[in-house]
Give the backbone structure.
Amino acid sequence: MIGGARTQPVSAYVRLVLTSLRLSKTQVTMMAKHLDTIYVSGWQCSSTHTSTNEPGPDLADYPYDTVPNKVEHLFFAQQYHDRKQQEARMSLPRADRAQLPYVDFLKPIIADGDTGFGGATATVKLCKLFVERGAAGVHLEDQSSVTKKCGHMAGKVLVAVSEHVNRLVAARLQFDIMGVETVLVARSDAVAATLIQTNIDARDHQFILGATNPRLKNRSLTAVLSDAMAAGKNGRELQAIEDDWIASAQLKTFSDCVKDAIAGLSTSEQEKQRRLQEWSNATSGYDKCLSNEQAREVAASLGVASVFWDWDLPRTREGFYRFKGSVAAAVVRGRAFAPHADVLWMETSSPNVPECTAFAQGVKAAFPEAMLAYNLSPSFNWDASGMTDSDMAAFIPHVAKLGYVWQFITLAGFHADALVTDTFARDFARRGMLAYVERIQREERNNGVETLEHQKWSGANFYDRVLKTVQGGISSTAAMGKGVTEDQFWTKPGAKSRM
């Protein structure tokens, strides 16, 4: 539980961003009045706006210029509405201009770079596109490009720590070459990941799972599955065979395996506790990322040299190692990424304050000035999180105090648009125009939403003034001249129109 009443707006604690549904220009301009940054999500592009026009789930299998293209789409909208506003303000007398609220339409766009879409050169080219098309920031995540999933899906495969560091270096190099100060966000999916591509980096070793059942020696999972397929088995039969093998393998990290071996020694309880403490002192801590070879040497010095533990036996058919995801794994990665990124983001599976706290404390113990990001995801069932309404209201400032300075809600626009459209369409089918007037038009008027006058919002006034300026101050073809239906909105409801 969070507790504590919020007495200031959340913007007093943290910079907020609301992503746009379908990444529309309308939403970007509406957000500009209230929020600080715009997030362009790969999930949204994959589901609603790929450059192939083929929607689908967030598997990062869309063309790699999809998100940069959408960034440019939104950036042009920001520039256009900023120009339109500037012209409108300059057309007013100075006294009236001073009373007109100013909207900063050029809010920074933070874009989803997924995994970089390949090797270092692909990452470099992707980042170049983002800069050229208006992104102020880019985030890259530590999943495998081949198997990338949305952070809230299963089946995520991590790359080695060193590989993601290379991605970050490639991105920063491109930004430096272009002479820009683009914000680089490093994201880790290590909390919920269950697989890792390779065991090449010692910093990953403590989280890789191995088989501890010696009866499976020389009988790997891949060999068992290969034999079963050769025997004509498939589908559910293969899955059952894999499940049985995994259950019998007794998968553990090497550390857990050593602890169990020490606990099973024929020695006094006091001696067991001494050795367990010595093991912990030698291997625990985010800065003690021993390789498996080094850990085995420590284990041997504690009397458990012959412990059976094999990380190759349970490898998947694709060759991936089994990984024990955790906040600790995310902290290790966050510390490795910190020197190469401006902001660190740990993807989580729920709005969990203890997890946020552990990650922040773990990273900041080594990098006190590190800035953190948090995804206030609609993928979470917030009502099932155990938080009260007051807890939810206090969540943003609470974690902001831990160092999460950039908090964003990835798909609120998506859900808001779906909700409004579905409920309006249903009501419109039943009540006709009264449904539109009650649900949309009156609400736009009551809340001062400028799309009530959508011709003006789109810039018809702006281009009328351009046309009149070019033609000496008058135009017989002005779009907003006599006869425009939007004239009806310049009078109070119920009053006689000027038309």
User: Anything to note?
Assistant: The chain has a mean pLDDT of 87.
